[in-house]
Predict the 3D structure of the following.
Amino acid sequence: MEIAATLPYLYAAAGFHPENLGEYGEAGLAKLREILQNENIAAIGEIGLDYHWKEFGPEMQEKAFRAQMELADALKLPVIIHSREATADTLRILADYKGVPGVLHCFSGSAETAKIVTGWGFYIGFTGVLTFKNSRRAVEAVEAAPLDKLLLETDCPYMAPEPWRGKRSCSPMIQSVAEKMAEIRGLSPQEMIDIAAANGQRLFLSGRGEGA
């Protein structure tokens, strides 16, 4: 939040990530609600499910996920959703919150999953994974999703695109992701960047009366 306060185009998000639920509870939720009142907060997140790292069990993860989805609904804030090796449970939970705007970030689901979640109104975000040679699922998901639901992201410091794979990911590298997404959708890179930027502003800033 301190960094976001330094420049007009920076915003922050806050939430209990499924790998970091050590301070989750009534007091933690109260503290989160307090943090979310800050004018530089644009979303709740990352929140969701992670069945790869199992420090916290599925039941606790789902409880925290649902509580934060309800908080997002109450505060009219979008969510940034983390889902790793938990697609079935993520879909089951999100089916109960179709009215809450949000993005499934670093999307790793199938084309079918992309159709389902975008049909519910959620956006899907793609990282440098889209440029990898073995990224067939990601390519198929981009093909299946509506243009107005696609977002570009870094997932910094991870998921750097080719030719920087394995390096620290950063914002200028988004150009490579945009070029690949544009190729898949038959657009110019700048057209894809413009579309994704408009989508991001609609998701995160539509309730703020912000200009371009």
Notes: Helices lie at 26-35, 58-75, 87-94, 111-119, 136-144, 174-185, 189-205. The radius of gyration is 17 Å.
